Amino acid sequence: MKKFIKNCVLFFLLLLIAGEFVVRFTHAVSDIPRRTIDNTGIQKYFINQTGYWKGGDHKWKINELGWPGNLPSSFDKLITIIGDSYIENFMNPNECHQGPLLKKKMSDFNFMEAGRSGVSFIEAMEISKHLDTLQPLQTLIYVNDNDFYESITEIKKMRDITQLNLEKDQIIYGKMKSPGLKKVLYNWKLIYYFYNRYPINFTNHNKENEIKKPELNKVLKFKNEILELFKFIKINYKTSNKTLIFHPKTNDYFIKLAEEHGFKTIVLDSSKDSKSWTFDYDSHWTCYGHNQVANQVKLGLNEHLKGKSQ
Amino acid sequence: MLFNSLEFFIFLPVVFALYWLIGNRRIKQQNLLIALASYVFYGWWDWRFLFLILFSSLVDYTVGLKLNHEERPARRKLLLWISICVNLGFLGFFKYYNFFIESLVDSFTFFGARLSLNTLDIILPVGISFYTFQTLSYTIDVYNKKLRPTSDFLAFMAFVSFFPQLVAGPIERATNLLPQFYKKREFVYANAVDGMRQVLWGMFKKVVIADNCATYANMIFNNSEDYSGSTLLIGSFFFAFQIYGDFSGYSDIAIGISRLFGFNLKRNFAFPYFSRDIAEFWRRWHISLSTWFRDYLYIPLGGSRGGTKMKVRNTFIIFIVSGFWHGANWTFIVWGALNAIYFLPLLLLNKNRVNTNLVAEGKYLPTIREVFQMATTFFITLIAWIFFRADNVSQAFIYVKDMFTTSLFTTPEIFPLTILGLVALFIFIEWLGRSGEYAIEKVDFMRRPVRWSFYMFLIILSFLFTGEQQEFIYFQF
Known about the structure:
The complex is a heterodimer of chains A (about 300) and B (about 475).
Chain A: H1 2-26, E1 35-37, E2 43-45, E3 50-52, E4 59-61, E5 78-83, H2 85-88, H3 98-105, E6 110-115, H4 121-131, E7 138-143, H5 145-149, E8 163-165, E9 170-172, H6 179-187, H7 189-197, H8 216-221, H9 223-236, E10 242-246, H10 252-260, E11 264-267, H11 287-309
Parallel strand pairs in A: 5-6, 5-7, 7-10, 10-11
Antiparallel strand pairs in A: 1-2, 3-4, 8-9
Helix pairs in contact in A: 1-7, 3-11
Chain B: H1 6-22, H2 27-46, H3 50-69, H4 73-110, H5 128-143, H6 153-161, H7 174-177, H8 189-222, H9 229-260, H10 278-284, H11 287-298, H12 308-326, H13 330-348, H14 368-389, H15 393-403, H16 417-432, H17 448-464
Helix pairs in contact in B: 1-2, 2-6, 3-4, 3-5, 3-6, 4-5, 8-9, 8-16, 8-17, 9-14, 9-15, 11-12, 12-13, 13-14, 14-15
């Protein structure tokens, strides 16, 4: 029995080493960049990190400002792009990001992205406040229904996401969730592989994967809270140079409120496209989807910029 | 609880450690642990059905004891029928009630009459067909005086509910498994290692071969009308390997785990896809069920001793009942009948025992004749699997009809090279290891570093190519 247990343990340890080697070599899991919270309370990434996306087909890069993607060659005629994992977009190569795609279509302008998975609408506004120091012509904020709900502590308190506490009329900055554990998990690739492959129900939940049809009841239920959120934003942030890009199927109520509170809006529509914008296995946009989005954003943006020049 | 789940990954080492900590001098305590662990294992799925197993065990245990003291033939027969009625009654109700009602209503409708009967919303208890046959074998063997009944209820409970093979076999005979619960079980290093190896091979079959093949088989069978003949052929090929990998994988895991606890279960699969005719196939596929039907149905019916008519009748009965055992659907009955049709010419020409040895024994490669025989047998099996897999008989016929069109010779729309490569690797390993009880049994000739590297290779392949986790197919039977 002793020999059996000894050999089992030895085999298991060797297997861990071999498995780690194979998972790293084959890029069976994506490399995940380490996050930090800057002195303004914004969660971003440690600068100058690079890594492979799952499968090893392409690399991602964190720039000098702590956001994924390359910085523009110049900050003149700048348009900033803010959003969650759709903008962070680690799953696609750099040329399929909104910044490079829009630059290709609107070469007179420079684009800079600030994307991070989990960003709520209020956090996007906070980020925009800091990026306003770069004096962008426009800021594009990509949003969906959940980003509004998740902005308000009274709807659902989320420790790791920056939210607005309506009662105190105060921003509650997100805190890092189990950073030590995450550091181990992301560096011990084999374990991270299993964590992804066999998710434990109560933890592995990516909020961006949950964009569903608009929930009318939820909108009705939290109508007042959402209105308060927009009022707060109107008072505390500059909205005139912000364009909200609404994901397809966003509830009309949010679009209407945004327009009433001084935002410009672009509503994405994938319904007329026979080809899907998203991956088979999750709701993020493929390279094709990003390109279609950029086409629609370009049209809307041209209108807004034309209006501005007139 | 699924073998390929995190819960089982924790459950097994805990039970294993407790079992050997109790020590083999305390057989009763070990049996109690096995019974408890088995009930936890089963109850994890749905605890309510534990009462069914418990009741079935109680009835057969009591009937067995009564048979021991009863010499009057009529009384003995009555006791046997009580056991048969209780066991098959449960099976009939849970598994076949709705089927009979629907078939009855359909037949009335066919003859222009109306019958208003409602089906019930019945959950099929996992593994009911397996443990029912296992307990029945006990009562029948006691009735036939082939086995002395046990007075140890704990051992009997552990025998009926033995968790490694409770839900999907192999269907053990009381004559083989029950006596092992009375004896001291020794921990033998070589047996434990062999058990682990068989578990590894079973897992590989399940998570790499069966689950990946299932993805494509489901995709093709669920939209069969959209695909060309060549794709439909690939769909049936994938299903053939799904069901083989799934079911024989389960058996390998069950046998391997049992060995860790000092038990020996019977072999259930013997490389069936290397069979040279259908009779050989049925000696190599789901052996525990085939031999069950042979011993408790075919032989009592007269077997192949009578005239041609009787042979034909008995062959059809055994294959159709075997098909029906798999599920309450006409597809299984047609599948059984089709296999009977394949088998009959061999039986009537007395050629059903031509291929009893191992194909290409002692050689690396088969002869051209053997290749042709194996390919033909595999192909007709493939056709039969279409009926087994299809949702209904008409879909199966349309599937076969659509397959044999000119589009059979076009490039298939679905041709997943990686998965086909894995299946090819699997066939290659099975071929090399076909003289063993399972494909990788005889790897001891390798030096330890090579052997361990090979195990790791299989495990890592399992990590990297794990298909979508699916329940074992035979759970539904």
